Every structure is written in structure tokens, then in C-alpha cells.
Amino acid sequence: MVKVFDCPKSLTDMPTHYCPGCTHGIIHRLIAEVIDELGIADKTVGVAPVGCAVLAYNYFVCDMQEAAHGRAPAVATGIKRVVPDGVVFTYQGDGDLASIGCAEIVHAAARGELITTVFVNNGIYGMTGGQMAPTTLPGDKTSTSPYGRDTKKQGFPIRVSEMLATLDGPAYIARVSVHNVANIVKAKRAIKKAFEYQIAGKGFTLVEVLSTCPTNWGLTPKESLEKVQRDMMPYFPLGDYKDIEAGEKK
Predict the structure, then answer these.
(1) Where are the domains of the chain?
(2) Tens digits of residue pLDDT in 129-154
(3) DSSP label at 56?
(4) Quick one: CATH architecture of 24-243?
(5) Cα dihedral across residues 137, 53, 205, 10: positive or negative
(6) Per-residue pLDDT band at 209 (split at 50, 70, 90)
(7) Terminus-to-terminus CA distance in the chain, angstroms?
(8) CA-CA-CA-CA torsion sign (190, 21, 237, 48)
(9) FRET partner for 104 with CA separation of 20 to 30 A, picked from 2, 110, 120, 140?
């Protein structure tokens, strides 16, 4: 029998702490596959701050560094400048990156730091109790917006990819999703390009991944995947928002 599917070498063989139906595991696998394909495991450093992925160091077979909430881009910047030949990535959620860490990511992108950010957007604070995040959709109920997000009082969701694409420092900004197989394939392609651009010294790269949070959304895993396509994608359209090689800005 021919083996056609196996665990990436850059991913550890251990159960994860994520909730059933959470798509963090899919994103972890895609990153690990890219690390394997590029042959960079021995020089890759991942940075994970506080959030659902706070224990990411348990899952990747590469050097990992913990960062304070929202500070992963600053930590990654320091690592990359000390080890310029290394491949450095941050793995951040929307509550972390778009709220407490918003200034960090904006200025890292503006400086064109040679790091890659995988930005997991599920529109809610996952680990800390399901509070409203900067990316929570209008009308969505959370523990701090029990009647639904009211844009008159709480403002509108931040579109991170569109915002960062206006800066000169980024080389590649893309938004993808992992709610079905076709989009998982596209997501891997984007993550690989982001790493390749970093290795080539082209500039800052970020891939935003629309993800699920069945527990805090109060939905089944299947319903959560449907919500990504039905509700999230219209507000956060998929695509490349900046690609200096293609000369494209969405």
C-alpha cells in the first residue's frame, strides 16, 4: 500500500488543546508543510503571543519564542535583526494583533521588517472568554456585546489586510480562508509565497486566515464553517491585497 498522506516533519505528533472544530490545527499543518517543502526547519523561529495559540511551541518542530500579548512583531523584529539569515514568523489571533498589538503590526509593516505574520481572524477573543474583538462583525453577539455589536456605539470591524496594504513596507498581503478544501489549498499557496518573499528579502509579509471559533460562536463545527462563507467573507473578501511581484493592490 502506498502512503499518500502523512504528518509533516515540522509538526509534532501530539494531541492539541484546541476546541473541537477549531481550524487552528489546519493552519498549523499548512505552516508545517511549507517549512518542510522549503527545507527551512533548522533556521525557522516562530513567535506566538498570548491567545489560543499560546501553546504553539508544543506543535512546531522548530525554535519557538513566547511573546507578551500583542508584542509578537516586536519580538520577531529583534530575532530577525540578530539572526538575519533566519526565517521568522509570528502566529497571531485577531484580538492580539488587531487590538492590543495593532500599533506593533502597523509599524513592523511600515518598516518593512523581514518577518512573516500568519494572522488568524475568527472575529472574537477565543481564549480569554469570547469578548468582542476589533474584527467582530456588526450584529454578532459576544460576551461583551450580548445584544450584538452596535456600530454606533462600538464602531466597525477593522479590515487589517486592507489597512496594511496601503503601506509601502509590505511586500505581500493576502487574505485566505480554511473553510473548505479548495480554500485550504489556496491558503497554503499564500503562506508559502509569504515565506518565500521573506527569504528573498523582499519585505514584510502577512497572510490573514479567516478561521472558526465554534465554542465562542455557540455553533457546531459545520455551522461555523458555513458562517465563515456566509458572514465573514462578504465583510472580509479573500484575495491578494498587495503583491510587489505582481504589482497588484486589491
Answers:
(1) 24-243
(2) 899 999 999 999 999 999 999 999 99
(3) G
(4) 3-Layer(aba) Sandwich (3.40)
(5) negative
(6) very high
(7) 46
(8) negative
(9) 140
